[in-house]
Amino acid sequence: MIHDVARAAGEVAYARLTAAAQDKLRLCLLANVSVALAGASAVRLPVPAAGSAHRLFSGARAAEARSAAGFNAAAMHARTQDDFHPIGNLHIATVALPALLAAAEVQPGPGERLLDALAAGYAVATGLSKRFSPITTPRGLRSTCLYAPFGATAAVARQWRFSVEETANALALTASLVGGTTQCWLDGSDEYQLHVAQGAAHALLACELTLAGVRGGAGALDGQAGLYASLTGEQPRFADIAADFNADAALLDTVLKRYPVSGICQPVVLACEKLAPRLAGRRIERVKMVMRAFELGYPGTDNRGPFRSFSDRLMSARWCVASVLTAGRFDFEAFVQPASDAVEQLVARIELSGDTALPPLSCRVCVHCADGAVIEHDAIDAGQQLAINAESLRDWAVPLWQVSRRDAAAFDRAAAAVAGGAAAPVAEMLAACLPG
Fold first, then answer.
1. How many CB atoms are located within 10 Å of the residue 385 CB?
2. Closest to 103 in 3D by CA, of 171, 153, 164
3. Cα(408)–Cα(234) distance, rounded to whole angstroms?
4. Residues 307, 312: Cα–Cα separation, whole Å
5. What pLDDT does residue 383 have?
6. Are β-strands 284-292 and 374-379 bridged in parallel, bridged antiparallel, or unpaired?
7. pLDDT class for 326, splitting at 50, 70, 90?
8. Residue 18 in contact with residue 247, Cβ under 8 Å?
9. H runs (alpha helix) in 212-309
10. Contact indicator for 119, 12 with CB cutoff of 8 Å
């Protein structure tokens, strides 16, 4: 299977994407850079050793590619506002893009090659996860840790112009470098940043080891003791999942996060923002909410407290409801500051249940008020309502750039560089998107 995956990755090309997928790829690139700039100050991992070779989203520079990729991945994920795939249940770009940017600083090349590589990363991570995330996620295994590093390795291999054999070898080595659980969302701990940092760094390591002649196993994925057999008890054939390596679908199905909370809680925040104006002046007695059963079952989504940090609040559907309805709007500071009594009291009055019939990114919120009023809002299949498109990107992204003390003009320069990136040297895109 590993060679089939490598061949599939090599067949992905920016020029062969549909126009809609090309637009989405550029949109994802710019959106993830924006959230990384805003998140750089919230990175919990150590700052890499200083150097001149690799730019960091903090504005500093690092000496070594792997440490730069790791820090930049943590920055991209620090607010958890990076894009995600709702079926593969993973963040692809936050692992693949920082690894790819560091790889491009080592071997620049044309801008179109970077776009080819990023598209290949989306295709590979989605192809490997789409069927199996519903099996591995309930076991506490985080899909971003298991599958996104393969996308990152495919992207770096493409940037470094690996052959199919070299790409297959690097992917095989990646199978020994993946892992991580969802316990961090229950404990309110910092591993969520470590997950993506090590995934990005390991993609570069797998490619460096391949260049050094280290050999990976051909059965790393589908062997009797390979990754899939170990995690799921299955030994799939590539033919079973080949249709999932569709770069157009991988990109078009990817969701850009409007809010800096978990992907699962995006429709929850949306529904509560729609409800809030209708609740003005009323006292909330209790709230009933129905979510898609699989999403409700994701670790941390049903967090009831005590809440210790941003990482357990951002996952909690209860916290999202209570915070938004109490403030009347989404307020990021409420997620990172000590909890108010009003929010904690409302958390205790929220009833959650799951419905297997609801589509992804859906919820129903019903608020019972002390005056007897019952006010409801449904956010069903909310991807389109939440979508950030080319028209709305600037209004959404500029405040993120301003968090990092970069102005709207800097965003506009980056947007122009990304828009023309296929026809320009990749160095121009790197200079516009990475500070320093």
1. 15
2. 153
3. 50
4. 6
5. 78
6. unpaired
7. very high
8. no
9. 227-232, 238-241, 247-253, 266-275, 293-296
10. yes
Structure token digits, residue 16:
């062969």
Mean pLDDT to the nearest integer, 300-320:
91
Residue pair 392/256 in contact by the 8 Å Cβ criterion: no
Residue 137, token pair as written in the block: 């996620």
Q: For tokens 């991570």, what's the residue?
A: 125
Question: What are the pLDDT digits (tens) for 90-105?
Answer: 999 999 999 999 999 9
Q: Which amino acid is at 350?
A: I
Tokens of 203: 């993609």
* Paired tokens of 89: 């249940």
Q: Calculate the dihedral angle through the C-alpha atoms of 148, 35, 80, 244, rounding to the nearest 10 degrees.
A: -30
Q: What are phi and psi of 290, to 5 degrees?
A: -115, 130
The full length of the chain comes to 436
pTM for the whole thing? 0.91
Residue pair 360/263 in contact by the 8 Å Cβ criterion: no
Give the helix/strand (H/E) hosting 363: strand 363-369
Which tokens hold the place of 141?
A: 């295994």
Residue with tokens 């393969």: 150
Give 17-54 pLDDT, tens digit per residue: 999 999 999 999 999 999 999 999 999 999 999 999 99
- Eight-state DSSP code of residue 244: G
Strand boundaries in 234-362, DSSP class E: 284-292, 350-355
Given the structure tokens 């991807």, which residue do they identify?
383
Query: Is the sign of the CA dihedral 398, 56, 419, 200 positive or negative?
Result: negative
DSSP 366-414: EEEETTS-EEEEEE-STHHHH---HHHHHHHHHHHHHHTT--HHHHHHH
d(CA 293, CA 357) in angstroms, rounded, equals 8
